[in-house]
Design a protein that fits this description.
Elements: E1 3-7, H1 12-23, E2 27-32, E3 57-61, H2 67-77, E4 81-84, H3 91-96, H4 98-118, E5 126-132, H5 155-174, E6 178-183, E7 186-187, H6 196-209, E8 215-217, E9 223-224, E10 227-228, H7 229-239, E11 248-250, E12 256-257, H8 258-268, E13 272-276, E14 283-288, E15 303-307, H9 325-331, H10 339-362
Parallel strand pairs: 1-2, 1-4, 2-3, 4-5, 5-6, 6-11, 7-10, 8-15
Antiparallel strand pairs: 9-12, 13-14, 14-15
The structure holds NADPH dihydro-nicotinamide-adenine-dinucleotide phosphate and guanosine-5'-diphosphate-rhamnose.
Keywords: Lyase, NADP
Cofactor: NADP(+)
Protein name: GDP-mannose 4,6-dehydratase
Length: 372
């Protein structure tokens, strides 16, 4: 049985990848951080009690900032494949915690590669690095492919750029089968609540049910190439199944603005919006709404989206659009979920969640609304 080790298994991609690899017959090991509360909601359906006999899903405590934990775990498992998905992955937060971001995202990657080298696994353990379209930052070329120059625009992107090059260097220096997947934004109902897509679907569901008034966003003009995480984790695995290790761009080749995402998500609820004003004064106003709308105060003319400059970044990545030709040709990359289906799936899931909260409220329970 092949053994895989996933760092960041409690995150969006970790959950989809774990499920995918279990489906392929792997024994899946994951590194989770110690936390004062359970932090495994995305993978609880895969959990196997440690007292069960044969387990194919096993979690270990560790942290990318702690070499000793990484060396111990890798020594014990001797995995065939390591997927390094762990990261402080929020671009805006990286401006607030730049040193920690560098430690986990840049040096964390080095620590894993060093563990492979120190333990003598360079010829047996394959390594996947979660690289990112954020490397392109202030874009030099449209669309972006594997040869487009990098111009990182945040502490997160700079840390990921170190990680990218240390992967290339260890591949060349020590012959490790190591790949960078340069993935463009990918989303899902499991997306963290503070990334813009999930923030939008979650807030609109709550506005529609009447327990949130307004969605506050930053740069509405930012354009991204958004795909579905379920499709993207399959490519992570495929990159480690080739003859030679190479780096690949994974993207849909289609781009939308944040404003267009809001419109598409609202349309899923039967709401139409119009946009008025400019810059920080811009607002999203309800044009029409369906009779099924449960929010007593929502009517044509209600302002449901406002710009809040607190969500602007000191340096912004305005536009990203990927060219996944290489992955299409060499890995057979065909994304199965397009933009409209992605938005619909996320909107449905958040409406279900909001309906559950509404039920709790009706029964007199307190439901907190956390909006960041
Ligand atoms: P998430 O933020 O959902 O998950 C990040 C994971 O990393 C979580 O499991 C988190 O643990 C863990 N983690 C964070 N810091 C540490 C640390 N110091 N030690 C150990 N684990 C840590 O990210 P995604 O699943 O969306 O992304 C996966 C990877 O892909 C990330 O590296 C991200 O930077 C990269 N990426 C993501 C893209 C996207 O659009 N989603 C696009 C391109 C790259 P906890 O649950 O405890 O917080
Ligand atoms: P990104 O994703 O920075 O591309 O990084 P995010 O969803 O955070 O932002 C996308 C764009 O939307 C703009 N934006 C807002 N963003 C957030 N989070 N909140 C807001 O209120 C808001 N309003 C507008 C942002 O300014 C930005 O332009 C994600 C992460 O998953 C990274 O780990 C990954 O590497 C890249 O995608 C590819």
């Amino acid at each position: 049985m092949k053994k895989a080790l996933i760092t960041g298994i409690t995150g969006q991609d970790g959950a989809y990848l774990a499920e995918f690899l279990l489906g392929k017959g792997y024994q899946v090991h994951g590194i989770k951080r110690r936390s004062s509360l359970f932090n495994t909601a995305r993978i609880d359906h895969l959990y196997q009690d440690p007292h069960e006999g044969e387990r194919r899903f096993i979690l270990h405590h560790g942290d990318l900032t702690d070499s000793s934990s990484l060396i111990h775990i890798i020594e014990k498992i001797k995995p065939d494949e390591i997927y390094n998905l762990a990261a402080q992955s929020h671009v805006a937060v990286s401006f607030e915690e730049p040193e920690y971001t560098a430690n986990s995202d840049a040096l964390g990657t080095l620590r894993l590669l060093e563990a492979i080298r120190i333990l003598g696994l360079t010829q047996t353990t394959r390594f996947y690095q979660a690289s990112t379209s954020e490397l392109f930052g202030k874009v030099q070329e449209v669309p972006q492919n594997e040869t487009t120059p990098f111009y990182p625009r945040s502490p997160y992107a700079v840390a990921k750029m170190y990680a990218y090059w240390i992967v290339v260097n260890y591949r060349e220096a020590y012959g490790i089968y190591a790949c960078n997947g340069i993935l463009f934004n990918h989303e899902s109902p499991l997306r963290g609540e503070t990334f813009v897509t999930r923030k939008i679907t979650r807030a609109l569901a709550r506005i529609f049910l009447g327990f949130q008034d307004c969605l506050y966003l930053g740069n509405l003009d930012a354009r991204r190439d958004w795909g579905h995480a379920r499709d993207y984790v399959e490519m992570q695995w495929l990159m480690l199944q080739q003859q030679e290790p190479e780096d690949y761009v994974i993207a849909t080749g289609e781009q939308h603005s944040v404003r267009e995402f809001v419109d598409a998500a609202a349309a899923e609820l039967g709401l139409t919006l119009s946009w008025q004003g400019e810059g920080v004064e811009e607002i999203g106003v309800v044009d029409s709404l369906p009779p099924t709308c449960a929010a007593a105060d929502l009517r044509p003319g209600s302002v449901v989206v406002r710009v809040d400059p607190r969500y602007f970044r000191p340096t912004e990545v305005e536009t990203l659009l990927g060219d996944p030709s290489k992955a299409r040709e060499k890995l057979g990359w065909v994304p199965t979920t397009g933009f409209a289906d992605l938005v619909a799936e996320m909107m449905r899931a958040d409406l279900d969640d909001a309906n559950r909260d509404a039920l709790c409220r009706r029964e007199g329970f307190t439901v907190l609304n956390h909006n960041e």
